[in-house]
Design brief:
Chain A: Keywords: Phosphoprotein. Chain A: This is LytTR family two component transcriptional regulator. Chain A: InterPro entries: CheY-like_superfamily, LytR-like, LytTR_DNA-bd_dom, Sig_transdc_resp-reg_receiver. Chain A: One of its GO terms (molecular function) is phosphorelay response regulator activity. The structure holds two protein chains of two kinds. Chain A is α/β, with parallel strands linked by helices. Chain A folds into two domains: 116 residues, 3-Layer(aba) Sandwich (Rossmann fold), CATH 3.40.50; 104 residues, LytTr DNA-binding domain (OB fold (Dihydrolipoamide Acetyltransferase, E2P), Beta Barrel), CATH 2.40.50.1020. Chain A is 28% helix and 37% strand. Chain A is built from seven helices and 17 strands. Chain A has a five-stranded parallel beta sheet, with helices on both faces. In chain A, a hairpin with a 2-residue loop joins strand 8 and strand 9. In chain A, helix 1 crosses helix 5. The termini of chain A are far apart. By secondary structure, chain B is α+β, with helices and mostly antiparallel strands. Chain B is built from 13 helices and 18 strands. In chain B, strands 1, 2, 3, 5, 6 and 8 form a six-stranded antiparallel beta sheet that branches. Classes of the chains: A alpha/beta, B alpha+beta. Chains A and B meet through helix 1 of A and helix 9, helix 11 and helix 12 of B.
Chain lengths: 233, 555
């Protein structure tokens, strides 16, 4: 069941998005809300858990890009619906799920929604940063600094090159949808950057593990061994 | 120009050195009293003194021995610079008189300060001659001006001043033209630049100075009025000595203008007081003080890296050199001319800057045109409109068609006004109204347009109100019943025209402080383009909405 927030200042367009969203998800919508300003949207997010945010980048003359960082740090997927198509590339580097340029139709919006339901990666991701919210402050972490990600229920733990750890509000499954192809799921709880993998260690009893360049060893899921081996060669 | 000046200088020197008559002067001696024999060549004046003494209003004699070393075949002439009324005797022979000496029952008729006499050929042989003057000086009796004598060929005596005057008048004419030109330039230029006015004044003062200096050659001045001219020259020099540094300080952006000018003024005043009655000296000191002040300003300009500073310094040095090597009379004027040439050069630099500014204003105008055209094709407007349009066409085609009509209407007007600098106010209002129609379809908010006092004959830069309207739509939340009202009011007063534009709605909260953004910059640039600095633009929140006031001043 999807909980959806639409932040859009043009009534007609907001209604269009809402209608098309309902068409797409049909019965699978738990809640759908429309806010016509960023402020209202932020208040709504603070008080209601959501799964999908549909965000316009220019609202009442304010640049929605400024708050994009804090939005993508949230536990929900963000889809940009905007007239500023030239901002699309930037938006993707921050880890939005999709950028739907205006004017749009049902097919284009549905394509964006399908990315949520399709697990795993759909297209080549250009994401460069992971936005992490900590004590209300959003910080950008460069993806190249991430060693691996460990799933922790609805959260994920980011293990960084410098030895630090960060908690991300998105689940590991959601991050997997966003992250570039260099990240590989090696275990039900581990998503690693292939650049960091040193070699696969095989232990007696078909137990596989992965040695990272920094010496850490992570388990490899039995079912994922073959795929990983193929990619590492 | 420099070369021309050198030729000019040489000519002047030649004209004053051409004399073929060579003579030696001996000190003039004086005696109070009256005796016809005192005119005689052979009279022994050993008892006479070189001091005139107190002659009161009475008659006194002076004898000036002159030794002719070389004379010429051309008739000789005598040029006398002296005060009083006098009879002129050359070797005892009366050559003529200047004014009328005091007689028993008749008061003196003042003579001219400058007088010329022809010497008969028979008395122009080589050897010593005696020039005796029988003089009375009833007026300005305290002034003991020495008798000035010049011997030359008679035609040369009359011609030389004409040559000098012709050159000086040439120069004066140039300054007169410059003065008139810069006055007109100042009066007709929209931006009243004081430096232009000052330059015009300096040129006219300098013209007057040249005329005042050389007027002596074509107007005979009675000795009683001799000092008036000098006084005028003194004050003209004084004014120039103040204005030239002022001009430089403005052109070179000198920081402590006031201090400098007050100091300069004090120095000049004290020079005047200290050298009271020493007219020539005062003028020389004035010009030196002026020169030094100008040098200070120019050096400062060079330090500040002002354009043209170095060239002006060169000009000042050249003027100092000229002044040093030439006789005061010419030197002063030629050095002044050099300085004014420097100023003219600065002016040319300035004109270049203004030209550049004009170019960039043209550029600005075309940028503003582009800005206007962009309004309707910028992605935010176009793509959002198209999205709504899509929705209307899909959901209710009839209204969709209306929407398309409205949009076409707005495009039409925009297209029509795109290249205009000013458009009729009615056209602007029509533009706003079609925009509201378009926005109504997009936002599904009711927009109301009100106007009052509109003068249909008035013009405004295009899309000013439209821009305000856009801002109003973007930053407002409808009050009740989904309604936002806009009101345009026109007011004409004796001093200005005023447009007020009100938005009646709730203002959206802004997360960041706005200082106008592109819209306001567009409006301000358009106002500047059409009205220079004769406008005022205020835009601020008021209870119940937003209020923008545009005032356009008549002057």
């Amino acid at each position: 069941m999807m909980r959806i927030l639409i932040i859009e200042d043009e009534a007609r367009i907001a209604k269009r998005i809402e209608r098309m969203t309902r068409n797409h998800f049909e019965q699978n919508i738990a809640a759908i809300a429309i806010c016509d300003s960023l402020q209202k949207g932020l208040v709504y997010i603070a008080n209601h858990p959501i799964d999908i945010l549909l965000l316009d980048l220019n609202l009442n003359g304010e640049n929605g890009f400024d708050i994009l960082e804090s939005m993508v740090a949230g536990s929900f997927h963000t889809i940009i619906v905007s007239a500023y198509t030239d901002k699309a590339i930037d938006a993707f580097t921050y880890g939005v799920l999709d950028f739907v340029p205006k004017p749009f139709d049902q097919a284009r919006l549905s394509m964006a929604f399908r990315r949520i339901t399709n697990s795993g990666k759909t297209t080549e991701s250009t994401m460069k940063y992971l936005a992490v919210k900590k004590a209300g402050i959003t910080r950008l972490i460069a993806i190249k600094d991430v060693l691996y990600i460990k799933g922790a229920g609805i959260y994920s733990e980011l293990y960084l090159q410098d030895g630090k750890q960060e908690l991300h509000d998105k689940s590991m499954e959601m991050l997997e949808q966003l992250l570039p192809g260099s990240f590989e799921r090696i275990h039900k709880s581990y998503l690693i950057s292939l650049d960091q993998a040193e070699k696969i260690i095989i232990r007696p009893g078909s137990s596989y593990s992965l040695l990272l360049k920094n010496g850490e060893i992570l388990p490899i899921g039995r079912s994922r061994y073959k795929e990983l081996k193929r990619k590492m060669i | 120009m420099q070369r021309l000046l050198i030729i000019f200088t040489v000519l002047l020197l030649l004209s004053s050195c051409k004399s073929t008559v060579v003579y030696e002067e001996y000190p003039t001696v004086y005696q109070t009293g009256d005796n016809k024999n005192w005119a005689e060549k052979n009279f022994n004046a050993a008892q006479w003194t070189t001091e005139r003494g107190n002659t009161a209003k009475g008659i006194f004699w002076s004898r000036s021995p002159v030794k002719l070393i070389r004379s010429s075949a051309v008739p000789m002439g005598l040029h006398i610079e002296a005060f009083g009324a006098f009879e002129v005797y050359w070797d005892g022979i009366l050559l003529g008189h200047n004014g009328q000496i005091t007689q028993k029952d008749k008061p003196e008729v003042a003579g001219y300060t400058t007088s010329y006499f022809q010497i008969p050929d028979s008395l122009a042989h080589m050897g010593t001659h005696i020039l005796a003057l029988r003089t009375s000086q009833s007026y300005l009796n305290g002034v003991k001006r020495p008798v000035g004598i010049e011997l030359n060929q008679y035609p040369a005596l009359l011609r030389n001043p004409l040559i000098i005057t012709s050159f000086m008048n040439l120069m004066a004419g140039a300054f007169l033209i410059a003065a008139v030109y810069y006055f007109f330039l100042y009066l007709n230029s929209r931006r009243k630049e004081y430096s232009i006015l000052i330059f015009a004044v300096i040129c006219s003062l300098f013209f007057s100075l040249l005329i005042a200096e050389y007027i002596k050659f074509y107007i005979a001045i009675p000795y009683t009025h001799f000092f008036i001219r000098l006084e005028i020259i003194g004050w003209l020099t004084f004014a120039i000595a103040i204005l030239v540094p002022l001009y430089f300080s403005i052109q070179f952006h000198f920081n402590r203008k006031k201090i400098l000018l007050i100091t300069l003024f004090m120095i000049l005043i004290s020079v005047y007081l200290v050298n009271y009655d020493h007219f020539d000296l005062t003028a020389i000191v004035y010009s030196r003080v002026m020169w030094f002040t100008a040098v200070i300003i120019v050096l400062n300009a060079i330090v500040q890296k002002e354009k043209g500073g170095f060239i002006v310094l060169m000009g000042l040095l050249a003027s100092a050199i000229v002044n040093h090597f030439l006789l005061y009379d010419f030197g002063l004027f030629i050095s002044f001319t050099l300085i004014i040439l420097c100023m003219l050069y600065l002016h040319a630099l300035r004109a270049r800057i203004i030209e550049d500014e004009f170019q960039s204003s043209l550029l600005l105008s075309s940028r503003l045109q582009l800005e206007l055209i962009k309004k309707n094709i910028q992605p935010h407007f176009l793509r959002n409109t198209l999205t709504s349009l899509m929705d209307w066409v899909e959901e209710s085609p009839k209204q969709g068609a209306e929407f398309i009509q409205a949009l076409a209407g707005e495009f039409d007007i925009m297209n029509y006004i795109a290249e205009a600098v000013l458009i009729p106010i009615r056209q602007e209002i029509e533009l706003c109204k079609t925009h509201l129609k378009v926005m109504h379809f997009r936002k599904e908010i009711c927009y109301e347009w009100e106007e009052s006092g509109i003068d249909e004959a008035e013009y405004l830069p295009p899309a000013l109100i439209h821009t305000l309207l856009e801002n109003g739509i973007t930053h407002s939340i409808p009050i009740a019943n989904s309604l936002i009202t806009f009101k345009l009011t026109y007011l004409r007063t004796a001093v200005y025209k005023q447009y007020t534009f009100e938005t009646h709605a709730l203002n959206r909260e802004v997360s960041k402080k706005r200082n106008g953004g592109n819209g306001f910059r567009y409006i301000q640039a358009r106002l500047t383009e059409s009205y220079g600095d004769r406008w005022k633009f205020i835009s601020a929140a008021i209870p119940g909405g937003w209020l923008t006031t545009i005032q356009i001043y008549d002057k």
